């Protein structure tokens, strides 16, 4: 394989957020609205050298934008309530009147509905049409006891700000709609968890794209410099549209350069910005050779290897690749990884083996390794990822699945089964321990690792408030009950796939399937391993091989750290 790092992959799905997707959440239903900004992650090393873009300009558009609204949840099982008089209620009534909903006050008073607060985060670089998670919660003094089984009606989301002591709304930035997933372990009385809040995975759709750019520092602002920055960036990052070369940078004024995210960094916006800031502004051939030698020495030093790898990636030419290939052969594990990571974003095959080994054996770098592998247009990378689907580590297996899905979502090995358009459903014919995986962030998705999963009877399970599963012997009956509706029933075998399909056939949604699976595991009737959001975590501390041991309290013996 070559290193055609300027080419697009026609099969890479433009999904924002694998970089976020690969950060594990705290707890089953912890808040998704964490005010984290990639700005905080950007290395400042480049800014210390005024011969680099980062020495004269800083990023714009790298923060998260919070959008929110008041909305209406329907379909509750008599757990809703009439909201008290408030400005929020008045605003919701006005929106319902705009939508021509008949007798909106009666709708709000119904126990089948609830007024809720809706929030979401638009990540840096999100594009129109991209999806994002939604958090839903009841209002203060609400009579609603549970949102389980509810459906959020189509709601416009706006950015809000407090100006002059009043809350001001901006333009609509997104739409939200979908089935609400409440923590299945939460009791209906609220004592066992939070039944009055939940999530809609991928329930938000961005209506506008968020721009990225560079703001030139005040003391350096000039049209000439703005154009020089744009030229330097475009020499490194460009693509071809109908044979015409197009760069990613557009100088707009003497203080602002607009950036378009390069496709290879679609799932790693912060790295794209770090690499852009590491691009040299002006450099003669002799200066470049001198700096190349310095970067080689820095790459091979574990203390400076991360910054050096980024700067070599920013150079992006054959000489830089040769230095990085030397780094992959280093005896130091971190040097090998950082060099391979940079090579992956240059689409060089030599990166694959090192990154696959890291994904398998080194939890500290696993999240970054999967991001880098999924950015490649390389058949060898795909082959290594398919091998990782059968490993013991749950997060390695699921991380490999997500990487393949981003590389080739239509690949027969991992593509979604056509049983519903409400969530992804994947059955992987792979080796390794039988495992069932579900998500609680970014994309509603059930993944079965292995084709054979059977429930043990007898069993009694719930799939939402209206579907009940009873099993005895070799048969399982799935029944749907509803007020003023005839009972519907399906009889299937103990095969988990058949049970899931029957739930969907009876109108069950993703939260219903997740609840059934979690109850099945908790009650011991699902022998397969069951994991929720087994996503590789970022920010783990890298332990040297000499430190990669821990003492067990029970035996006092030393043992190797186990993979997660």
TrEMBL record:
SMART domains: EZ_HEAT. InterPro entries: ARM-like (IPR011989), ARM-type_fold (IPR016024), Flag_FlgI (IPR001782), PBS_lyase_HEAT (IPR004155). GO terms for molecular function: structural molecule activity. GO terms for biological process: bacterial-type flagellum-dependent cell motility. It is found in: Bacterial flagellum basal body. The keyword Hydrolase does not apply. The chain crosses the membrane at residues 12-33. Residues 536-564 are annotated as: Disordered. Its main location: other. GO terms for cellular component: bacterial-type flagellum basal body, distal rod, P ring; outer membrane-bounded periplasmic space. Keywords: Bacterial flagellum, Cell projection, Cilium, Flagellum, Membrane, Signal, Transmembrane, Transmembrane helix. Residues 538-547 have a biased composition (Basic and acidic residues). Assembles around the rod to form the L-ring and probably protects the motor/basal body from shearing forces during rotation. This is Flagellar basal body P-ring protein. The lineage of its organism: Bacteria, Pseudomonadati, Planctomycetota, Planctomycetia, Pirellulales.
């Amino acid at each position: 394989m070559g290193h055609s790092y300027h080419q697009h992959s026609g099969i890479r799905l433009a999904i924002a957020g694998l970089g976020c997707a690969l950060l594990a959440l705290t707890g089953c239903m912890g808040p998704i609205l964490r005010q984290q900004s990639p700005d905080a992650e950007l290395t400042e090393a480049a800014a210390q050298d005024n011969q680099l873009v980062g020495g004269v300009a800083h990023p714009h558009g790298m923060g998260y934008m919070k959008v929110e609204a008041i909305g209406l949840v329907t379909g509750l099982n008599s757990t809703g309530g009439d909201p008290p008089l408030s400005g929020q209620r008045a605003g919701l009534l006005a929106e319902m009147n705009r939508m021509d909903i008949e007798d909106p006050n009666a709708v709000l008073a119904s126990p089948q509905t609830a007024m809720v607060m809706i929030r979401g985060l638009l990540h840096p670089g999100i594009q129109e049409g991209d999806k994002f998670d939604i958090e839903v919660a009841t209002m203060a003094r609400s009579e609603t006891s549970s949102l389980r089984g509810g459906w959020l009606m189509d709601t416009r989301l706006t950015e809000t700000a407090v100006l002059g002591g009043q809350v001001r709304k901006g333009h609509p930035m997104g739409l939200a709609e979908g089935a609400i997933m409440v923590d299945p372990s939460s009791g209906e009385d609220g004592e066992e968890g939070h039944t009055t809040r939940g999530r809609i995975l991928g329930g938000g759709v961005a209506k506008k794209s968020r721009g990225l750019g560079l703001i030139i520092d005040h003391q350096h602002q000039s049209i000439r410099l703005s154009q020089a920055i744009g030229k330097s960036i475009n020499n490194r990052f460009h693509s071809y549209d109908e044979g015409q070369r197009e760069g990613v940078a557009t100088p707009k004024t003497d203080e602002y350069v607009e950036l378009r995210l390069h496709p290879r960094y679609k799932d790693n916006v912060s790295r794209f910005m770090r690499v852009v800031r590491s691009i040299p502004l002006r450099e003669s051939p002799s200066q470049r050779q001198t700096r190349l030698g310095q970067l080689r020495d820095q790459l091979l030093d574990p203390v400076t290897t991360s910054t050096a790898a980024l700067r070599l990636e920013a150079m992006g030419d054959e000489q830089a690749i040769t230095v990085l290939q030397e780094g992959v052969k280093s005896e130091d594990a971190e040097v090998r990884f950082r060099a391979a990571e940079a090579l992956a974003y240059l689409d060089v095959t030599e990166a694959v083996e090192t990154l696959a080994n890291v994904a398998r054996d080194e939890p500290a770098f696993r999240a970054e390794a999967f991001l880098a592998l999924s950015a490649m247009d390389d058949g060898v990378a795909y082959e290594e990822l398919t091998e990782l689907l059968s490993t013991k580590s749950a997060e390695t297996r699921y991380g490999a699945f997500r990487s393949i899905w981003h590389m080739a979502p239509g690949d027969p090995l991992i593509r979604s089964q056509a049983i519903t358009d409400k969530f992804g459903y994947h059955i992987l014919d792979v080796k390794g321990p039988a495992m069932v995986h579900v998500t609680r962030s970014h994309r509603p998705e059930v993944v079965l690792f292995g084709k054979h999963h059977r429930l043990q009877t007898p069993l009694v399970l719930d799939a939402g408030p209206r579907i009940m599963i009873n099993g005895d012997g070799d048969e399982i009956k799935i029944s749907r009950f509803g007020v003023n509706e005839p009972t519907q029933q399906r009889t299937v075998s103990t095969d988990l796939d058949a049970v899931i399909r029957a739930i969907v056939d009876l109108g069950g949604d993703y939260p219903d399937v997740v609840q059934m699976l979690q109850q099945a595991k908790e009650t011991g009737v699902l022998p397969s391993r069951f994991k929720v959001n087994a996503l590789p975590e970022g920010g783990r501390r890298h332990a040297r091989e000499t430190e990669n041991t821990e003492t067990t309290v029970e035996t006092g013996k030393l043992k190797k750290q186990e993979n997660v």
